[in-house]
Amino acid sequence: MKNVLLQTATRYLLPLLLLFSVVIFLQGHNKPGGGFIAGLIAAAAFSLHALAFDAASTRRLLRVDLRSLIGIGLTLAIASAALPLAFGRTFFSGLWTSIGGDPATGDPGLKIGTPLFFDLGVYLLVVGIAMLLVLTLLEPAGPTYEGPADESEGDAA
Amino acid sequence: MNALFAIVAGVLFACGTYLLMRRSIMRLVMGLVLIGHSANIAIFTATGLKRTGPAIVPIGEETLPATAADPLPQALVLTAIVISFGVIAFAVVLVSRVWATAGTDDSNRFREDDDMEAVS
Amino acid sequence: MDGPPGNANLLPVLPVLIPLIAAALSLLAWRSLAIQRGLGLAGAVGLLASAVTLLVEVERGPILVLQVGAWPAPFGISFVVDRFGAVMTVLAGVVGVATFVFSMGSVDARRQRLLYHPLLCVLLAGVCGAFLTGDLFNLYVWFEVLLMSSFALLALGGGVLQVEGAIKYVTLNLLSSALFLIATGLVYGALGTLNMADIALKVRAGDSPEAVVAVSVLLMTAFGIKAAAFPLFFWLPASYHTPPFAVSAIFAGLLTKVGVYALVRSFTLMFVAESEFTHAILLVAAGLTMAVGVLGAASQREFRKVLSFHIVSQIGYMIMGLALFTPLAIAGTIFYVIHHIVVKANLFFIAGIADRLRGTSSLVHAGRTSLYAKAPFVSALFVVAAFSLAGMPPLSGFFAKFVLLKAGVEAKSWTIVATAAAVGLLTLFSMTKIWAEAFWKAPDPADAPIDRTRSPKPPARGMIGTCTALAAITVLIGIFAGPVFEFSQRAAEQLLDGEQYIRAVLGEQALARLETGGETSGSLRIADGTTAEIGGPR
Lengths: 157, 120, 538
Description:
The structure holds three protein chains of three kinds.
Chain A: H1 4-27, H2 35-52, H3 55-62, H4 66-86, E1 96-99, E2 110-113, H5 114-138
Antiparallel strand pairs in A: 1-2
Chain B: H1 2-20, H2 25-46, H3 71-102, H4 116-119
Helix pairs in contact in B: 1-2, 2-3
Chain C: H1 7-10, H2 14-28, H3 33-60, E1 64-67, E2 78-81, H4 83-106, H5 109-113, H6 116-132, H7 136-155, H8 160-191, H9 196-204, H10 209-227, H11 235-239, H12 245-270, H13 275-298, H14 303-324, H15 327-358, H16 371-374, H17 376-390, H18 396-410, H19 414-440, H20 461-479, H21 481-496, H22 498-506, H23 508-516, H24 526-532
Antiparallel strand pairs in C: 1-2
């Protein structure tokens, strides 16, 4: 599927969509949005790229192996859920701190907490899993990520 | 309104069941999608459809306003959608794998596996 | 509310957390199969260790509760560990460790590279989550977690045969999930809560009784599909014989038992108001499940298909105990589950070894090699597991069946007792068939191998070690049947004493409300509830 229009449009759309996903991700702090939906938007952006070009070039674009992405996401999510334990809080309770806040003027500063990192983990996890599925669908001959020394999947024609 | 949505949920479930019984496995996946939607609508209907506002605590308040919707059914449905997204995506991958290996999506034309080794 | 700091508070989620961490780390280590194996095994061992600690804790003290994120009980998600949940988690740990050890020698490297180890870890996390959660919707989520990973494991790197089995499995399990989801929505609509203890409380107080009965039957159907009970079991024998042996062993040992667990939990804790009606359905289903399962097995000629039908048959026994609904019968169910998980997983593992030694799993062309002459030790292992399954004394299965039959006699349910006894005999017949065909028959040169590509090869040492360990557990359950049975009785008492569970999760005040019969309206009380329900016994 080589379509010049789609490919050119994708070149401009991809950064915009990724930026949009970051906006939605940050907006999830106190409005509708958050890691899951932002991850899906990012995955949609990369899927568009995979459709316009091909799966291999999307893999190159992503740089990180999808399995690592899922692993990092899951680790981050678990770590942020477990971090409160180190402070004597229960599993999954939110820990918040603020950077540059000024109690005198009532300026809350930049609030950073474990839910943010949990959401970031979810974001990476969603991108990883969604892309794994999409790219697997686009490569019907079987995944090429198995490693060099392997025969390909099943008895795929 | 409730009755209407109950009927919609039922019809969706019926359509889904019909598709499940088709031989084409792509239709089968479609059937699963419809049944998933039916379940989501059923949840909303069962927990009461009302004209309400979004379940967001206004700035400066501690509790939800009285007009707000019950957030729990929304959370349930959202989770269910997320899960069914994953499951259906997986099922589609499975179907494409079947298509690639068997060259058909007609479940009657798959190699009969039972006792293949034993009977022949 | 900040719960008490320290590990005691974390303990109830550890069996879920440890395998999840192992999964995450082994995903990061996708380059190295050795690290993945190590992490997977470490995760399973950690799960087992934490589960044993939990079991010791709940055996000594009250029900353990963890409110996730410190949200108080009916609003947040609770993790609740009672004796039944703890012992199930321990069994999940045992089967998990066994599967990881067995996989090392038996699952080919190509499959292992397709995220096999992380998926197994996630599967274990899902199973444990289902055993430990105290929230109906959270139970649904764990069901889906374990289902997703089991889908992937079932289809992983397979040809048409395996994928076809996977399709049947996926379809029926998704149908069951949809029913479960609808039932969850209806429960929330009718009772305004999804916390199991809160549901139990409101059902006991007599809230919307008609809706509750309808919902309980819907849940029964959903869990019945997962447990492979009578009219809804067809997916199981259609899929369990296709994946690698290690995978089908963990499925056979654990997955249907999650369905049984959910049935037991629902119909001892939550939906007991109309027990004459619901448990009568369960009793009929139990009898038919037993009979149809064992008859199905009699007509099969493939090692794992015979065993798959026997899973169905044995699910019947477990449901029978639940349906009789006496303390002795529930204790019998618990004993049966303990015995069955170990034995069934072991039989599938042994099927894997036998398949390796013979190069086929068919029981018709078994005559090629006498396995007994070639590998007497493996044959002996099979005998232990098979006789235990059939209920021969002094192995674990005998006591499990004996307790259930005794409970049946006490309840004067003669039909189910007769069915159970007859099915026991037929099980013995099936096992003898496998024994005769696969292990005993002398070499017959006329029987040419069908599949020449699969030449027999010796099993890895870890495979035999796994089976030996599991067979030893079976023998030990038989020898120490007394203590195990006493434990099952204590677990059953705890299950039947719903108030204990409610008190542990919701606190004493909740029960007081039950006695006065007041204030049980179905809506969330966000404003006062947060203060009223804080501070259970933990």
